């Protein structure tokens, strides 16, 4: 029996990637696609790459259009899911790609987002450590049977996956974490702003949200606290570069004095040894964003900088795949007891 699925925000980038992946999922059947300004349009007129979904028409995003499905994926602007979801049955699996339900701290929500706070849901990065869990326990344990799931911020999950193993193993310090990210403009969504005009982006690298103000900082801190960090401090600087998709995050932290380079590497290799979608590259190898495009894969390269006393991680993720839609589908698979890899591929597209 196929699960019936609705996707809200289906005219956007995250919604489009959800639909591309859902179209290849053996257990999921997309019945309803919703939008805002594009409601009434044929899906194919707005998302012409989704050829197998030509029969679908975008409808308005309301509790009525979203009700009656087994699963609802929300890919809406921040602040839109809380009120909407309160009208959906409690036994409907709702996976929100926005930020509305990621943060457990209302103060963090107020400081970085603002507006009504609707509370935290189970967090959709299965490979991260479970808060208060025993060694080896991960967030996926909290997703089993869940009916409300918060998919991650793409930059937040990338940096968190990069550093959580070292925190959990006690080989790096949580103070003085520094992350600098090259990111593609699709992370900002489809709506046009002057900053994202091709003429502003092509041939340039454009930093933004500098100096401790980026909304993903509290989400990373939350993930690292769940991994065992006490009072993590994170300097986070994203830079938009001319590639449509992708994140390349260089995340560094101080190594706990006296820790051997072998122990540092072992922490990462052990953390992800059995993870299909998070892979640690052999010593001396580092990923490129091109290696993960379209894939539900995070690739992590790792070096110990002995002179600086720091671990340097370089992590590549497709912001729309493992960074959003892939993570959302992976979490839904776990919630429903399906194989975690259903409908998802570790393989990217090249060139
Ligand atoms: N892009 C990314 O890499 C990532 C995105 N996300 C999150 O996913 C969500 C969607 O992002 P993204 O796809 O990039 O954004 P887009 O701007 O590309 O798409 C936004 C979607 O929401 C719809 N929408 C806009 N305003 C409203 C409204 N008032 N009520 C209902 N629907 C509305 C749009 O409909 P229409 O076009 O018809 O107006 C469109 O379908 C956001 O919460 C984002 O933060 C999370 C991780 C990464
Ligand atoms: C280029 C760009 O603007 N990227 C976005 C990434 C957004 C994301 O990960 O999603 P959420 O907005 O759901 O957290 C940013 O840095 O805010």
Automatic annotation (TrEMBL):
Predominant subcellular localization, coarse grouping: cytoplasm
Keyword Nucleotide-binding in annotation: no
Domain Semialdehyde dehydrogenase NAD-binding: 4-136
Pfam family, one: Semialdhyde_dhC_1
Pathway(s) of this molecule: Amino-acid biosynthesis; L-arginine biosynthesis; N(2)-acetyl-L-ornithine from L-glutamate: step 3/4
Catalytic activity field: N-acetyl-L-glutamate 5-semialdehyde + phosphate + NADP(+) = N-acetyl-L-glutamyl 5-phosphate + NADPH + H(+)
Residues of the active site: 154
Enzyme type, top EC level: oxidoreductase
Classification via SMART domains: Semialdhyde_dh
Record-linked InterPro entries: AGPR, AGPR_dimerisation_dom, AGPR_type-1, NAD(P)-bd_dom_sf, SDR_fam, Semialdehyde_DH_NAD-bd
Keywords for this protein: Amino-acid biosynthesis, Arginine biosynthesis, Cytoplasm, NADP, Oxidoreductase
Domain of life: Bacteria
MF annotations from Gene Ontology: N-acetyl-gamma-glutamyl-phosphate reductase activity; NAD binding; NADP+ binding
Cellular component, GO, one term: cytoplasm
EC annotation from Swiss-Prot or TrEMBL: 1.2.1.38
Subcellular location: Cytoplasm
GO BP, sorted A to Z: L-arginine biosynthetic process
Cited function: Catalyzes the NADPH-dependent reduction of N-acetyl-5-glutamyl phosphate to yield N-acetyl-L-glutamate 5-semialdehyde.
Family assignment from sequence similarity: Belongs to the NAGSA dehydrogenase family. Type 1 subfamily.
Protein name: N-acetyl-gamma-glutamyl-phosphate reductase
Organism in which the protein naturally occurs: Glaciibacter psychrotolerans
């Amino acid at each position: 029996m196929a699960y019936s699925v609705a996707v809200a925000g289906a005219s956007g980038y995250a919604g489009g990637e959800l639909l591309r992946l859902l179209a290849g999922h053996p257990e999921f059947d997309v019945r309803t696609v919703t939008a805002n300004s594009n409601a009434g349009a044929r899906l194919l007129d707005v998302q012409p790459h989704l050829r197998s979904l030509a029969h679908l028409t975008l409808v308005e995003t309301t509790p009525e259009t979203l009700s009656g499905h087994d699963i609802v994926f929300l890919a809406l602007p921040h602040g839109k899911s809380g009120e909407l979801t309160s009208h959906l049955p409690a036994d409907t699996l709702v996976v929100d790609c926005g930020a509305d339900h990621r943060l457990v701290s209302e103060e963090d929500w107020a400081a970085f987002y603002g507006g009504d706070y609707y509370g935290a849901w189970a967090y959709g990065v299965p490979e991260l450590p479970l808060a208060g869990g025993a060694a080896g326990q991960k967030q996926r344990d909290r997703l089993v049977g869940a009916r409300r799931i918060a998919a991650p911020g793409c930059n937040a999950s990338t940096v968190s996956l990069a550093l959580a193993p070292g925190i959990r193993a006690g080989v790096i310090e949580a103070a003085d974490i520094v992350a600098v990210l090259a990111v593609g403009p699709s992370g900002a969504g489809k709506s046009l702003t002057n900053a994202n005009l091709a003429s502003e982006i092509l041939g340039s690298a454009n930093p933004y949200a500098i100096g401790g103000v980026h909304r993903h900082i509290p989400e990373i801190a939350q993930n690292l606290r769940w991994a065992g960090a006490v009072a993590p401090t994170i300097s986070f600087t994203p830079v938009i570069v001319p590639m449509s998709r992708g994140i390349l995050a260089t995340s560094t932290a101080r190594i706990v004095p006296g820790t051997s380079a072998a122990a540092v590497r072992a922490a990462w290799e052990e953390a992800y040894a059995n993870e299909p979608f998070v892979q640690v590259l052999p010593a001396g190898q580092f990923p490129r964003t091109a290696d993960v495009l379209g894939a539900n894969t995070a690739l992590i390269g790792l070096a110990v900088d002995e002179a600086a006393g720091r671990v340097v991680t370089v992590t590549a993720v497709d912001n729309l795949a493992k960074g959003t839609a892939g993570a959302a589908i992976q979490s839904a698979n776990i919630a429903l007891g399906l194989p975690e890899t259903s409908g998802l591929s570790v393989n990217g597209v090249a060139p």
